[in-house]
Specification:
The complex is a heterodimer of chains A (236) and B (266). Chain A has 236 residues and is an alpha/beta fold. Chain A is built from ten helices and ten strands. Chain A has a six-stranded mixed sheet, sandwiched between helices. In chain A, strands 2-1-4-5 form a four-stranded antiparallel sheet, with helices on one face. In chain A, helix 4 crosses helix 5 and helix 6 packs parallel to helix 7. Chain A is globular, with a radius of gyration of 17 Å. Chain B is mainly α and 266 residues long. Helices cover 72% and strands 3% of the residues of chain B. Chain B is flat. The chains are: A alpha/beta (236), B mainly alpha (266). Chains A and B meet through helix 2, helix 3, helix 4 and helix 5 of A and helix 1, helix 10, helix 11 and helix 12 of B.
Chain lengths: 236, 266
Amino acid sequence: MSHHYIKFTNVSYTYPDGYKALKDIDLYIAHGERVALLGNNGAGKSTLLLHCNGLLKATSGEVNIGGIPVTKKTISDIRRSVGMVFQDPDDQLFMPTVEEDVAFGPINMNLPPKEVEERVFMALEKTGTTHLRTKSPLNLSGGQQRRVAIATVLAMNPSVLVMDEPTSNLDFGARRELINLLKTFSHTQIIATHDLGLVNELCNRVIVMNEGKIVADGERDTILADLNVLQILHIE
Amino acid sequence: MGKLDKVFQTLQDLEKHKSYRAFPDPLVALPITILYLCLLLSIPLHRVTMLIWMGLYPIIACACAGQTYGKVFLKSLIILPLCIFIGIFNPLYQHSVVATIGSFNITQGWISLISICIRGVFALQSVIILIESNGFISICRTMRRFGIPSFITDQLQFVYRYIMVILKETITMRNARMARGYGRKKYPLKMWSAFVGQLFLRSIDRSERISKAMSARGFKGEMIDYHTYISNMQHKLSFSNILYLLTWGTVLPLLRFTDLSSIFFR
């Protein structure tokens, strides 16, 4: 795994309907950091995550992953090193069976068949979903779907894991299992979430967003003790 | 369970127990089904007895695939209203009498209506047997092997995968409507147009998200089958499958081009 950092320099993004989702974002995340991205709905968290692997292109400013600027030419390299787990597993799991979904990324990377098989095995093993290998993603529980969604990304062997609300819609057991799983990963992790329990267990650094801007960035305990931040997040 | 829930369950069950070693192999079942459909639909409308002989295929194919013919038969009846709609006016325009049973004159129009119904039911039965024994996804992959362009087979796979997700959303929207309907059963057209419009917008939204998820994992425009990829494109047919192919490949044209009724009931 190469040492990838994530750097946003003056990044702004405006949706086609004119909505300014990101406003002059400056951000640096070092290799191996676990960062929580907090903010109300519509604060710009998901938009920011979509910039990390070039799914959205900044209207102005630059996104840089490990020294490589995110451009059309570099996009395939960027997507190899930044794995994105979407909020709704139904969006991420589109193949007929779990193993085919996990193999989708490695096959697109043109890896030799033997390596594809090994990566599928490794990703399923790491996420504890080997027994689901031949099942249809449709027939899985929410927790299992979430684990498989992570496996699909792990199979690409990324350096950075970007996750959009990974614990949403999960019951207590599935949530606990997922947090324990994420603890075992040494990847750089950026997690957009509303789950403060997850933040407390996983992330040392917290970034708070409001109306497309970063309003607080720092150590978890300091940020979550700040009354202004709590007011922005509507935490009582 | 409502009708929508039943459809959802049926679709879900369809792929649940599929294995990659179904009999007959899709590589055999698909061409045989296409051959059967071509021969069945080429029979002239007035040759009802010949059509009935073609009914042997769905019965035997069901037994070979381990399916119950009764269930397949009941499912295939769903096509009857469409067949009747197509042929309903034939008895009115074709008056020439071809047979008489007691005091009843059977006209050519009635024969052609019955013929349309029989071929509709048999055709649907053959397709049901094909899909139920191999699974829709497997059929799509076989189509790809036969050279059908990937953009068609991929689209079919996606439609099949996401029809269930859209159905789920439809069920949720229906429940939300029922929860606030206070027992009301009829709604004006305006409400239905809003319902369908909403569903359409949700579908577009979802397809955009899926497209992003695919791009994030390096999708370049063609879905490559995992099993074909790792087994290096090799797929050998078993002896029983070859025998099945040769048998039906011979029997079906015989059923179509020889008048078996005149041989057996001379």
